[in-house]
Amino acid sequence: MHLGETARSLRESFGLTQRAAAERLDISFVHLCNIENGKSNPSPDLLLKFREAFGVDLYVYAWCREGNSEEIPAGMRDVTRRLTAEWTKLIERRKREFQSQE
Q1: Is the CB of residue 57 less than 8 Å from the CB of residue 91?
Q2: Which positions ≥6 away from 53 have C-beta within 8 Å?
Q3: pLDDT of amino acid 1
Q4: Could you give the CA distance from residue 14 to residue 50 in angstroms, rounded to a whole number?
Q5: How far is it, in rounded angstroms, from Cα 2 to Cα 93?
Q6: How many helices (H) and strands (E) does the chain have?
Q7: What are the chain's domains?
Q8: End-to-end CA distance of the chain
Q9: Cα–Cα distance between 97 and 20 in angstroms, integer?
């Protein structure tokens, strides 16, 4: 999985610059830039900050974006599709909340 690409996609979904997202995450702009460019991986603490700041579990969201549902048991495929759909809805709701705060 590419957590950096997912972090970038999530940030862009909310219409945030790297600087604004880094501020929300309470990390440096350079650190976020390194994560998004795959030069660094988010620590467990930073994953928690993503969850708190954006309401999204970065690992689960990354799997939903990039995972191959054909590689999991057939009985779980529908669940993963629904999970992906729910993450998408959640991000859209959070996006509207972010926009109303501006």
Answers
A1: no
A2: 21, 24, 25
A3: 61
A4: 13
A5: 24
A6: 6, 0
A7: 3-101 (1.10.260.40)
A8: 32
A9: 15
